[in-house]
Amino acid sequence: MKVRGKFVGWVKEPGILVVHCKKEWKDLLINTRQGLYFESPHYQGWPAVQVNLSSATDADIAEAITRAWKEQAPKKLTANFEMPK
Fold first, then answer.
1. Residues 33, 7, 79, CA angle at the centre, nearest 5°?
2. Which residues neighbour 11 within 8 Å (Cβ) at sequence distance 6 or greater?
3. Model pTM?
4. What residues have CB less than 8 Å from 56, skipping those under 6 apart?
5. How many whole angstroms separate alpha carbon 17 and alpha carbon 72?
6. Is residue 13 within a helix (H) or strand (E), and if so which, with residue range?
7. In angstroms, rounded to a whole number, what is the distance separating the alpha carbons of residues 14 and 6?
8. What is the pLDDT of residue 83?
9. What is the CA radius of gyration of the chain?
10. What's the farthest any 2 CA atoms get from each other in the chain?
């Protein structure tokens, strides 16, 4: 998945979604949602976090993709965006 040429997310392997994530948020996500968000050695130091799809609800997946999209999309696109309920 991309927005204006920037990566938002991709499926690394079955059951694992990788989404863009600011480095400063990565540890917080992993520590507060253990079992859902994690990091393998391959992604250490990169602005991406892995999502365990077997532990994720539809709302969790939507939140992860939306957060990544908002981080990568130009300000013009995100200016009037509201998170789906």
1. 80
2. 17, 18
3. 0.85
4. 17, 36, 64
5. 17
6. strand 9-13
7. 22
8. 62
9. 12
10. 37
